[in-house]
Input
Amino acid sequence: MEPDNQEAREVDAHYASNGGVEERILAAIAATGKNTDRLTIDDLAPFDHFHTGGIAASRALATLANMSAGERVVDVGGGLGGPARMLANEFGARVTVIDLTKEFIKVGSNLTERTGLSDLVTFRHGDATAMPFPDGSFDVAWTQHATMNISAKDRLYAEIARVLRPGGRLVFHEIMLGANDPIHYPVPWARDASISFVRPPDEIRNMLHNVGLMETLWRDTTQNALDGFRAQREQAAAAQAAGSPLPSREIIFGPDFGERVASMGRNYAEGRIVTVMAVFTKP
Output
C-alpha cells in the first residue's frame, strides 16, 4: 500500500533512504568478524532498535506486559523488526510488523531470514490508521516510539482496539510531550515540526479511554531515558578513545543522525519530552 496522503508521504520520505541500508548494516556487522549469514538478535540490536533504551527497553517492556509463547502480536510502526524478532526469539510470540516505509519492510524481512525467525515474524507495508487486518486478529498490539509521526491518533487507537481480541493488550513505550514544550528540532523522528505530532500524557490517556481500552499499567520512564543517554555518551567516548567507535545508526538515517539524537537528549533533560511504558486492555 502506497502512502495515500501528504502527511504519510512526508513521513515515508523522512525515513526512507536511497537504498543500500541492508548492505551497510551487514558490512558494519561483518567488520566485527561476525557471520552475517547467521545473525542473532543481539548482532542486529545496535541497528534495529530505534527507540530510547534500545533492546534493553524492549525486553523491559515485554516483561511488564507479561508476554507469553504463542501470542499473536502486531508491531505497529515496527521498522526493521528488531523488537519483533526479540519477541519471537525470547518469548515465542508470532509477530506481524506493519510499517509505512517500504524499505524497512523489505530490509526487515531479509534480516529476519538471516536470524532464522521468518516462521514467527512477518512484515506488511501499510498505514497504522487503516490496518489491513480483520477484527480481533491479535492478542497484543505493540508500539515503541512509533506514534510521534501520526497526527490522527484517535484513528490509530480506534484501529488498535479493532484488531485486538477481547482481553487483548495494547503495550507501548512512547515519547510524549513534556511540561516545557516546545520541542527542539531536529529530532530522530522529524527535522522540524511539520511531521511531529507529540501529545501530552493526559491527552493520550483520554484518547485510549475513549476507544474503550482500560489502563492496566502506566510508568513514566523518563529518568531511565536520561540515564541511558548519559551511559551512551560515556560508552561512545570510551570507545572513541580506544580507537574502536561504536556502531552508529547514521548508516541508516544519514549523517545528521548524531545531531538529532543530541537534540533529543536535550529535550529529555529540559522536560520537553517524556517517555512512558504502558499496558492497556480491551474488555
The radius of gyration is 18 Å.
